[in-house]
Write the structure tokens for this entry.
Amino acid sequence: YHPLSALHYSPKDWVVRQFDRPEQGCGFIQAIRLPQAPEDRIVVHPKGLRSEAVYVFTNPETGAKRKLRGAEVMRDGFAFAQPKRQGSIWFYQAK
């Protein structure tokens, strides 16, 4: 488990958490934009990914997929964009 946003909770923030299974090369990132968060986009930097691995990120609700190298996503981050009071989950698996 890795918190990817501030640990304090305010209705003006995003809450982003990563649940990682490093021994299996998979996990998911959950992002929730709280009701008063002014920014409609947040970029987070996942932890514990293998820099040499290629990861497929999948959003099961939309069917969207992103294919990213571990080094790239840890360096440049992973972006979430969503309306207020909504959340999303992206599952990832090393290929």
Q: What stands out?
A: The CA atoms of residues 55 and 94 lie 4 Å apart.
